[in-house]
Amino acid sequence: MSRTRFAADRKLTSRMVLTMFLIGLLYVVFVGLLVWALGDSWPLVVVIAAALFVLQFWFSDRIAAFSMGAREVTPEQAPELHGAVDRLCALADMPKPRVAIADTDVPNAFATGRSRRTSLVCATRGLLRRLEPEELEGVLAHELSHVAHRDVAVMTVAAFLGVLAGLITRMALWTGLGRSRNNQNAALLLVPLVSAVVYVISFLLTRLLSRYRELSADRSGALLTGRPSALASALTKVSGQMARIPTRDLRQAEPFNAFFFAPAFSGHSLSRLLSSHPTLEQRLDRLGRLSAELGRP
């Protein structure tokens, strides 16, 4: 990443590179299968898929912000939020991203953007209403760490490739899979099967990366502010307040869990393999150990 005062994380960088390599390798195999299955029809599917990918890459930040109800605000509209972001960006020696507020009572925050120039940091009204200034700065430092490490862009692309597998399969089936009847029947069975495998593997790889990047952002954000206890307090408060939010609101927020500071549902009933975040206990334990390290002479 470009130099900032956020603590560099080589393990995160290597995991991002490995994740993108493995997902890219999956798609080389997948596209090869489609070329075999579609015969003369494959250029149309590839062109449409490429166009969808380009649109997703260039407009993913706007799509995500719109989907989550984020509205960009000026310093006059949200002076405390802008003030906190200004202080952290000056401390981190990084460009200031756009600042937004999501009009929901679900206490959370997220960052989007394919680059620092297009990045956006958003806090919900529920978060702003519940957190103390030091806790809010801890959460914002966590989100700015995602921007500095550029893992938001990697997550966006990696997650979209899984969705793209399903779209390509549908388009392939619509074209009639233009080969002989025997090959067509085989392709009708094989393409959806391989597509499902590609989607599952992509999903598991992005979940694995998502869990690690949250731990990395916790550490980097806490090191920047020098107050791991403030971030731990915010994390405990946000996780505890989720139980008081109506289930309907949590369900609406759940699809965006991978981008949130804390998941809308804690996921105690879900396998850790499927979780977008580490457990609350794991995050608090890491922050507690970091706090002890910083307290040593």
Automatic annotation (TrEMBL):
Positions that bind Zn(2+): 142, 146, 214
Q: Name one GO cellular component term.
A: plasma membrane
Query: Which compartments does it reside in?
Result: Cell membrane
> What is the cofactor note?
Binds 1 zinc ion per subunit.
Q: Where is the signal peptide?
A: none
Q: Where is the Peptidase M48 domain?
A: 76-287
Q: Topology relative to the membrane, per the entry?
A: Multi-pass membrane protein
Annotated GO MF terms:
metalloendopeptidase activity; zinc ion binding
Pfam families, sorted:
Peptidase_M48
Q: Where is the active site?
A: 143
Q: Where are the transmembrane segments?
A: 12-36, 42-59, 152-174, 186-209
**Record's superkingdom?**
Bacteria
The entry's protein name is Protease HtpX homolog
